[in-house]
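User: Continuing from earlier, I have the next pair ready.

Assistant: Great, send them over.

User: Here they are, in order.

Assistant: Folding the first of the pair now:
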Amino acid sequence: MIEVEEREEQQPNRSTTTMNTTTKIILLVANSIFLGLGTSGGPLVMRLYFIHGGKRIWLSSFLETAGFPVMLIPLSISYIYQRLSKKTTNSIKPKLVSMKLPLFLASAIVGILTGLDDYLYAYGVSLLPVSTFSLIQASHLSFTAVFAFLLVKQNFTAYSVNSIVLLTIAAVVLALRSSGDRPHGESTGKYIVGFLMIVAAAALYGFVLPLVELVYKKTKQHVTYSLVMEIQFVMCFFATFFCIIGMIINNDFKVIAREARDYELGETRYYYVLVWSAMMWQFFFLGAIGVIFCASSLLSGIIIAVFLPVTEVLGVILYKENFEADKGVALVLSLWGFVSYFYGEFKKERKRNKNRRLNTEPPQCPSIIP
């Protein structure tokens, strides 16, 4: 009888674990979609700005994080939901802002680094064609893997290593012919500067992703998805502030109206491009830190890399770029790498669940028959 009661008491815990796992999977899928949209849409819209007459690099940098006020909507919904839930259970009322000072300062530092990365990336995009974005994808994944190992002791499996190698090779295949895509009238010097800027941006963001994961691990607060959105808000605020300073020094605010009038697609569409650029990049940053929260910084880097072929295909369709055999090979390699990573994670999760079941099952006592 005692054994039956103990098993009944354990049952709710199992249900809670299952529910939490399901919620985590849903969040991971949603954030992966956000990250995919931002990874492909962000650089394409940014390049659209430069192709048709946009010249303000600091403005483009600013747009990469300027959409952060949108985060107030899900944050408000989360707060209202928690408040209603606590009222039903007579628990302590949730705080409007749950982030404490140490976490705020860490998020601010990451935000400033992100602002610097925004500038490096925008500078490179202003000088390089869409097909050359493969360079940032290739080096970004490699830097993320190295820094994830150094900062958060990310464990590598044969499948994750295979995935990194395949995705890196896929991006390098695309990069090998990037010099043939040099924009008309651009000097070799500018092309090299663009190349170096985009690789530097890759290295810096490859450091930022594991750094965010390290912040999650080291903080003394309980990390919830609501807190993750607060971290995202603070990071983007400081990144945007960093870029605003650059815009003021470069007099960008004074020339936006004139640039809009001279824009090849028209003044109205100029502002549409700016707004959509801000929205796409907000999807990117929200998805990136969300994937880190649900899984790891390495997975975040791999999703960014796997959407490289999507960006290439959209570049071909929207900007009439050539789609040659090397791009087809890169597509196959990227998909192969993505499947390899998830198959490895699937096997690792099955093994973890098996070990958990073995550890939680009560020992069988031999029955004594009088």
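And the other member of the pair:
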Amino acid sequence: MAAVVEVEVGGGAAGERELDEVSGVERRGETQVEHARMHAKHRGHEAMHAEMVLILIATLVVAQLLLVQWKQRHPRSYNMVTLFQMWVVPLYFTVKLHWWRFLVIWILFSAVTAFVTFRATRKPLVQTTPRLVYKWFLLIYKISYATGIVGYMAVMFTLFGLNLLFKIKPEDAMDFGISLLFYGLYYGVLERDFAEMCADYMASTIGFYSESGMPTKHLSDSVCAVCGQQIFVDVSEEGIIENTYRLSCNHVFHEFCIRGWCIVGKKQTCPYCKEKVDLKRMFSNPWERPHVMYGQLLDWLRYLVAWQPVIIGLVQGINYILGLE
């Protein structure tokens, strides 16, 4: 009786193996059929594919030339449209893909930034507003910088397999790193654009700066042209809270103000006389120079986030009109 049971069990196991083999053969067969169908569908379309590639390259080149000309001739409208797209395009994908965590953070950031921007664009400008604006955007800049660094390190640790030391799955570690990297870069780009817009409005309202032409006020040696407040610490003295910084044009500013103007506000000229600011001299400390390089990286990413989806959509529209698939 036991022998009969063993034979039945052995026969059942063998039958399961045979079924698995048959299923594997069937799946391979289905894959080969799909592969053959795909080749049959695209057979003879080499010329069409080459035409699509040429359309993509031509569109990228023409779009880049147009964007450069637009930025040079009408920088204000270019920056406003780019900022709007930077703000709205990720929101569309967030709602579509149900990224609710990103949506909550986006709403909080937008609410506080809208309040700060509202304060920066009021006339007359409240004396405490410039400090409030630069503190908020400098805070977001530092948070985005730290978040991007942590995300980059998490991605690199995952690539080197260090996540296994903490018993973390590779896919979980990579998702964590890429998410942090995206948060840091996106909000870093967005806050710099808002900060630049607010810096222009505030400086123009204060009167020591104008985008074109001469300032409407004379700058005293004891007044900071960025915030319009008195400077109480001499350049040669060590300040308790912050120092006073003198540019090569001999105009003096609060250290935090001129750093926010150059790094956060993306300005590389004196707020009063528009003389070129030597960033290497300003940030002589090697630990501070990565902030300058990080800012340059964010400026480059603006194009990818704001305009790349538009260009790709334009290419797809051209292919659709021409009947290319």
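Worth noting for the second one:
Confidence is low (pLDDT under 50) at residues 1-10. The chain has ten helices and two strands.
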